[in-house]
Amino acid sequence: MTVLKTSMRNFLAHKGRMALSAVAVLLSVAFVCGTLVFTDTMNTTFDKLFAATASDVTVSAKDSSDTGETTADNGKPPVMPASVVDEVVKADGVKSAEGTVFSTSVTVVDADKDSLSPTNGGPTIVGNWNGNDARTMEITSGSAPKGADQVMVDADTADKHGLKLGDEIGIITAVGTHRAKVSGIADFNVTNPGAALFYLDTKTAQQTLVGETGVYTNVNVTAAAGVSDAQLKKNVATALDGGYKVQTAKEVADANAADVQEFMGVIKYAMLGFAGIAFLVGVFLIINTFSMLVAQRTREIGLMRAIGSSRKQVNRSVLIEALLLGLVGSVLGVGAGVGLAVGLMKLMGAMGMNLSTDDLTVVWTTPVIGLVLGVVVTVLAAYLPARRAGKVSPMAALRDAGAPADAKAGVVRAVLGVLLTGAGGFGLYLAAAADKASEGALWLGAGVVLSLIGFVVIGPLLAGAVVRVLGAIVLRMFGPVGRMAERNALRNPRRTGATGAALMIGLALVACLSVVGSSMVASATEELDKSVGTDFIVQSDSGQLITPQAVEAVKAADGVDRVTEYKWTKADFTTPDGKTSKDTAITAADPTYAQDLRVETVAGNLADAYRPDSMSVHEEYAKDHGISLGSKIAVAFEGGSTAQLTVRAITSSDAVIDQGAMYTSIDTLANYVPADKMPLDTLLFASAKDGQETAAYTALKAALDDYPQYSVRDQTDYKEALKDQIGQLLNMIYGLLALAIIVAILGVVNTLALSVVERTREIGLMRAIGLSRRQLRRMIRLESVVIALFGALLGLGLGMGWGATAQQLLALEGLNVLEIPWPTIGAVFVGSAFVGLFAALIPAFRAGRMNVLNAIATE
């Protein structure tokens, strides 16, 4: 009980000093709990939606997906004849059955030809209005579609785009463009996370999406009273004799949920990874806080030992303080995490994904995980300072001594740090020298972890040398004040090393990702310049296939000399060694593709692969299956027949663009795949007539004005788009890493604040002999700046080493250019100085307000 009282007294006596450490725990726990609450809420939202929209039993075409629809390569959904409905109705236990048709391979535009499709990645769904939809949605304005010129839209999409009754929209599909006017607006009874839904009458939907009537993509089946979904599924499957896919409502909902959870899992674990980094940075803050508190209470601890307290009791006292800190920070963090989740939901709402706070999900495991993590990490971080406190001898009460220094421990630390750093460097070397990316990735991971730990351990040893260099460059110009700031930073290398290490971790990741991102852009740019021989590339940024109507519009554009179509499909390959490769990708293109993309060949001529019944393979595939020029491969095309194709070219496997592609001509593909099964184009390549590049560029954009889902880019545009995509990804990662950097800044603030308290008498004496308040504040600010620059220098150097090694692995995949983004690195380094200045504001202000006499009299 005495130990608990002592711990409580010390905790409350230093509550101001504990606050910043508590904030670090709070932020880390909040990020973990916020991530869990946010992802659980999204899963709840989707689960409710899928459960509400699924019929008792759903029948779909055999080659459809488990979620109900898979748009084929021809841009149309797989269908079944309307007669299936009659067969289903005859099955035992069926109350009713209704045929439906829908597709997600569509683009919807308004009267101004602006896309109405979601920008948040949600699907655009066009289908027929049916009884199942009427059960889950309510028409709030107008009426359901009753003719070919009418369409109904969901309320969220109408609100987002300002659609009202009578507005005209266009529905673009592989069949063509269908125009209709809004006849009604319907609202979901549950939350619609962000899909755009448009409803036509049944006949119009069939004609618009499939190009023929009398077919359905699904049949929604309702069970009679007392019949379970499982029994109904069995009865329907028996009636259909296994010719179609039959699923219960739960199976459809589970399949949809699995798709969402796969996507959500990536987000969840990525965000938890950044929370882990924040926790790691927070550990340094907590260690520093308790180390300094122990040092400041040396005399007090010595007196406790002198009056009978054991080492174990002193140790326990410090750990109880850490436990209290962890509990307070974690409890506040759990609450802040719920608030963070709500904030993320609002942010997603602004981006077009609707999430309702009515679905806010806080399962019991979330606060438990937050509390356990926060408390355990805090107590573990405080263990070493507590152990040092237990070593304070009773004689320390008789002198002004700090915590006992362990010279042997310092030597062990230095040796261990050198060994770990050396092992990490060797791991990075092995990664850079690897022949296969998969092997190198393992060595890269080991090298990153070991070098990071090594730098953390060896930080105090590095602090002495690095701070002296930084002091000579940055501080000496400030005269005596600068020299005092340097000596203060060098006074306790362990503290400076730990404080700098917290900032080092976040900046090392920033530098590594910057190098990798810049190298990827530079490599891709170089490859484009070297390999691409076309002027323009036409494609959909959302991955949609290019409709025949859009292809014709591109070919008809003025100033265009040639257009190369590029299709992608799957086939089963049976090679001369007798092996069969299932679902192997094969690219079909026009013969002019050999001019549009300069692919390196190791045997033969790529242009010959576009001759009738010919193809190419890449080098690795040829070696694996004993293929040479003239070899024949049996190619069973998906949706078509089997062809015996002759290998006319073997391409290099080291290409960046179209790496591993195997080519044949579109004419060859058309000979073995029926016209209604022919895949649509994935890309189009267009070349301008000589001297008409600008006119052709303008004409192509005008030609695709009716198709906003497609973009026309010249090589400059394409490079810029690639740079923007990687830049957006890096900015998102930098935003998440900002949490770790904020915690590191709190560490600098805490270190300086406690350091000021520790040096109270010294500061009073300096003021007494003539140091002005302004000089005192400057000294503390400069000390903070040099600590921040020390952490930045280590972090940026370490991160660039990681990034350069990662680039060597990417070089195995054809990304051969290493580019160091010096402007970014320089800006981060300079920004670190401003971080140091910011972190020193409060400690410097408090130091400047000290009463000189009281400071001198301080024990």
UniProtKB/TrEMBL annotation:
Keywords: Cell membrane, Membrane, Transmembrane, Transmembrane helix. GO terms for molecular function: transmembrane transporter activity. Residues 60-80 are annotated as: Disordered. InterPro entries: ABC3_permease_C, MacB_PCD, Macrolide_Exporter_MacB. Pfam families: FtsX (PF02687), MacB_PCD (PF12704). Its main location: membrane. It is found in: Cell membrane. This is Membrane protein. The keyword Transmembrane helix applies. Residues 19-237, 499-697 form the MacB-like periplasmic core domain. Residues 60-73 have a biased composition (Polar residues). The lineage of its organism: Bacteria, Bacillati, Actinomycetota, Actinomycetes, Kitasatosporales.
